[in-house]
Model the fold of this input.
Amino acid sequence: MESHTTYLEVILRSVAVYAFMIIALRLLGKKELSQLNTADVILILLISNSVQNAMVGDNISLEGGLLAALILFLLNYLLKVLQFKFKIFNNLLDDKPEILIHHGKPDYKVLSKLNITHEELLEAVREHGLEHIADVKLALMEMDGNISIISGDDALRQTHYKRRKNCKSLIKMS
Done:
């Protein structure tokens, strides 16, 4: 006699995996998708493959897979609603902006905590059109993982640089 994972088991397993992933990402850090490097993408692919069986068990039916996906979407929606309505959920799940540079002086303790190298900080400064860290009035690691920089230059008050990965060009067809 074959044992099949019931739909209730798929739901409970999906909730458990979702909760585990939220906690793991919160504890180990996260980046915005546009800032993921190759190793991060590989990790996400391997995690998704490894937790798939944990969610659906031996139920490899289309319905089991769709049910697991539906539960994940619903949990994500519910979490966003709870974050919007209750500040405690937002505080638990979202990082706060961190000051990286204040009046030209890097905060190496914060940089170390966020695993940002001096070279990465210099790159961010250059991406914002500045040459030296000393030119930065304030640099913040935003909640979404981007770095915002406010310069001391009156002509350039604040910049925000975000890399765009999938730039499409228009080709004129004749």
Q: What stands out?
A: The beta strands are 98-102, 105-106, 136-141, 147-151, 158-160. The longest helix spans residues 62-85. The first strand starts at residue 98 and ends at 102. The chain is about 50% helix and 10% strand.
